[in-house]
């Protein structure tokens, strides 16, 4: 259970746990002559942690970028179930997708570097806030009330991720591991229906990795947020996730529980082959 | 940056206040006192310069919203000032509508035209965008000069005395009365801009500046935000243009050339990009530079006569030199210098 009473739910999905949240079917993405994704199909379930793994260049980030609208696949469907209808994300612009509750972090931190931690987190509330020009310029009245109301949720995220001490610091002045945490926080502030994490532990030492894994589990277990994450570290993936999809050269080569995937010959070959080649 | 200690907020409301320490409130009180005392301290000549500073403050704040806060470069400021000035003059002079209506029309029309010329920003950035906004500058001034209906093809309009709710501003002590009006308007403009950047709208501008991809992924409509930034920025600049028209009681295209665009860019660079206070400091600094140089060269006329003879050349040289020196030694501008002074005081006698 939560160590203290949180008043806001961070889970933005209306679906019951166990329902299909995201259905990807026949997605094809090509850059020039290179096929980044070939006919990829998988589905994510509400209330689970879904990992996407694969060797370098397998198309994991491309898949995430397709879901969040930064890339537009040439073919295929990416359907999000909101509980009030279905939306094909494959043809939508990124800010529309964000409005449906798809939040994400980036592989190379993409924070708003000149802003403070709080301002970054408050931008996570953007989709839930109104921004009419005249009230904003007047400040007193609706604008201030709105700032305070959303600040309360933001402070819960600050508390959850233990970044109280740095909340007024400019993010570019913070250490790498803390920046990663702020990025997770910014996505959480959206109250996401689906949280996409692109290598949340890349470049971290063991301790930072353990912290981050703990935060992801908290977010998932305490706050019920559905997570789809990309990760290189196999141990982390096997410990965290309920379901694992494996990509290799843009194709889906395995999809199942961590045990199933671990023993899948195609996965072993892709990984050992890639590692042997790289090492 | 050093932060004050010993301040414990008990509500978000108090934490969100702009002034939190006694020192900050004291400084604000001193600034207000100084502003109120100004007309009694300086003579009419210097008060007229203060008035032009106050108008420049409005324009510089507007340009900083676009360049400093949203990261979209514009060298069309002169053109947008012209839109504001001509609109207000025409509405006030020909349609004989109240001054408030004329100024509101100027603000709205400049915002609309600014948004239109901001459309290239959806595709262009940096130098390319700067050149696209140069088009706004050239086209607008050309239209003002040549459009018969607008200015009779001369580019000049005379404006009758400024009347605000039945009060003819400047009928008595011209500069003092205008000072009162401009002080209020500039104060409100600064306050409005300051507020903008502690709300979501302003934050979305900064998000687009810092990381447009991440901004889109957080739900910021980047297209809309850029156009909005151009509109808001141009609205402020249009207001500055309208004030110029009424204050000088004449509108001439020569006041809105490319030089003016560069001057405003210089103001926000010298003052500090992305800071409202910096816009004020920069506007004051760049507007004071020519008269201070003139006064200085007059003072030493007896001993160094060449200085007074070469005054125009000297002014241009110093203008360029100041920008270069700021870019090299303090790219974050006067605002950052003032910030460091405050930090020094806060931590004294310890070094930061």
Chart the SSEs and their pairings:
The complex is a heterodimer of chains A (279) and B (352).
Chain A: E1 20-31, E2 34-45, E3 49-53, H1 60-67, E4 75-81, E5 86-88, H2 94-99, E6 102-104, H3 117-123, H4 133-138, H5 142-160, H6 176-188, E7 194-198, H7 206-221, E8 227-230, H8 234-240, E9 243-248, E10 251-256, H9 258-262, H10 265-278
Helix pairs in contact in A: 3-6
Chain B: H1 12-15, H2 22-41, H3 44-69, H4 77-93, H5 99-118, H6 126-146, H7 148-151, E1 156-158, E2 163-164, E3 167-168, H8 174-196, H9 200-210, H10 212-217, H11 222-248, E4 250-252, H12 258-271, H13 276-299, H14 305-309, H15 311-329, H16 333-347
Within the largest sheet of chain A, what's the order of strands?
6-7-8-3-9-10
User: In CATH, what is the class of the largest domain in chain A?
Assistant: Alpha Beta
Number of domains of chain B: 1
**CATH class category label of chain B:** Mainly Alpha
CATH architecture of chain B: Orthogonal Bundle
Round the mean pLDDT of chain A to the nearest integer and report it: 91
> Could you tell me the strand content of chain A as a percent range?
15-25%
The dominant shape of chain A is globular
Order of SSEs of chain A = EEEHEEHEHHHHEHEHEEHH
Name the beta content range of chain B.
under 5%
Largest sheet of chain B: 2 strands, antiparallel
Class by helix and strand content of chain B? mainly alpha
